[in-house]
Amino acid sequence: MGMGETHININGSSTNCLCILLIILIFHLSFPLRCSGDATLTKERTLAMIKPDGLVGNHTNFIQNTILASGFTILNQITLQLDQDTAKGFYAEHSSRTFFPNLINYITSGPVLIMVLEKVNAVSDWRSLIGPTDASKAKVTHPHSIRAMCGVNLERNCVHGSDSIKSAAREISFFFKKTNSAGENVSEHDEL
């Protein structure tokens, strides 16, 4: 490396760095900041989860670097090993679907990293950054998305993102609770 040259190396590969920079460029060109008439920008919060295949596949640093480079702030994070009951509670809206048992087995197969992200348009920007649910399709239609680069298929798609502001509030309060002065757990948001 010559004088004045800087090489960024993430997880031992400069290819990852190039991918991050490309994602950031594409993301910012595709989703410019939206301003209201009075130029006041309201930040949103969303829940992001790196699923077991993301942690086992050593994608955590890449995903978190991509999150930060895309203008998000990570407000809180926790690594958990979900048990069957917690997983069923979190994914309750899918309980009648045929894939539900496989989803529960998969999400409880290893630890997950759960994060609260914040920025203007956090929900839609995070969903755009992670790409389509089916990672194998994302590899074709959104090749620079997180799921395309880190996921495998519909089930093992590496990351989760809230699909609406309402869902984000429910999901954040599911995992991150405040404690009141009496020591009781209090939801960060009202149950929806």
Automatic annotation (TrEMBL):
Residues forming the catalytic site: 160 (pros-phosphohistidine intermediate)
Substrates-to-products reaction catalysed: a ribonucleoside 5'-diphosphate + ATP = a ribonucleoside 5'-triphosphate + ADP; a 2'-deoxyribonucleoside 5'-diphosphate + ATP = a 2'-deoxyribonucleoside 5'-triphosphate + ADP
GO MF assignments: ATP binding; metal ion binding; nucleoside diphosphate kinase activity
Amino-acid positions noted as binding ATP in the UniProt annotation, renumbered to this chain: 51, 99, 127, 133, 147, 157
Enzyme's top EC category: transferase
GO biological process: CTP biosynthetic process; GTP biosynthetic process; UTP biosynthetic process
Listed SUPFAM superfamilies: Nucleoside diphosphate kinase, NDK
Keywords on record: ATP-binding, Cytoplasm, Kinase, Magnesium, Metal-binding, Nucleotide metabolism, Nucleotide-binding, Transferase
Taxonomy, superkingdom: Eukaryota
Enzyme Commission (EC) number: 2.7.4.6
Domain (Nucleoside diphosphate kinase-like) ranges: 43-183
PROSITE patterns xrefs: NDPK, NDPK_LIKE
A Pfam family assignment: NDK
Family: Belongs to the NDK family.
Role, per record: Major role in the synthesis of nucleoside triphosphates other than ATP. The ATP gamma phosphate is transferred to the NDP beta phosphate via a ping-pong mechanism, using a phosphorylated active-site intermediate.
Protein name as it appears in the record: Nucleoside diphosphate kinase
Source organism per UniProt: Heracleum sosnowskyi
